[in-house]
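ugh ok so i messed up the first submission bc i forgot one of the chains. this is the corrected input, ALL of the components this time, i swear. 279 residues overall. if the numbers dont match what u have on ur side tell me asap before i send this to the collaborators (the ones from the other lab, u know who)
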Amino acid sequence: MTDKVYLNGEYLPLAEAKVSVLDRGFLFGDGIYEVIPAYSGRLFRLEDHVERLNNSLKGIRLPLNYSVADWQAIFQPLLEDGKDQSIYLQVTRGYAPKRDHGFPEQVVPTVFAMCSEIKPFPGKLTGIKAVTLDDNRWQLCNIKAITLLGNILLRQEALDRNSAEAILVKNGYVVEGAASNVFAVIDGELITPPKSNEILPGITRDVILELAQANNIPCKEDIIALEALQDASEIWVTSSTREIVPVVELDGKIVADGKPGPVWHAMDRLLQAYKKSLS
Ligand code: PDD
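and heres the new structure output, hopefully the right one now
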């Protein structure tokens, strides 16, 4: 992590950035966040991230009207030229004089941003193990809420089972990963579950669908039954910080031949070329 962070209009060394213990983010997890990659110092799909941020703010009824240019101006001083980094942005409902579930009368949001280096995810080239788990989270998963206990417990259960990700299943259908979206190649077609309140609308997910369409890779947004996932020839989990990660073992069973598949190789090449074309 770079030492300089942004907090409420100021750039400070990390150790000097402080918020009140009465901040509603600390007491209630009352806030939202974004993770925005920057390649060679340039923010990736910033407009899309800001649109999702605004949807999250609307979803928790927290007004904050910053434009894309305002956010760009806030983030840019945190970025270093030539590096692959990610911005973590968090907005909470701020300090309130007493702990009360209802919104305070006067809301001054806490706005915090920091920057970390993106290191290549070690499992990307060989593929990872994943387990399927029952999705026991809430019903507003489209909001990128900082209240992540559900996701954390599911990810940790996967880690405890020697797997890098949990693939969440609800009523027999695949939803998303604990911190990722899910794709599967079934009968030669790339499929990802449609957007709904049950998944976070991932920006990486959108980019993959766009690249598939532009390059004649058959793809669709559709429900994926657990049994169909178990028979898939490829499974991927996707996110801004890990990009596209092939799953080569699901619930202890090898996926296809246990190696990242041909559609993953093609899509990863397309994504790397797309990133380069923007930087
Ligand atoms: N998480 N679904 C969930 C539950 C996630 O937490 C994430 C990413 C995604 C993928 O979204 P995107 O492609 O926009 O990164 C889907 C981030 C990286 C995190 O919490 O750190």
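quick check: DSSP finds seven helices and 15 strands in the chain. that seems consistent at least. The chain has two domains: 4-117, 128-277.
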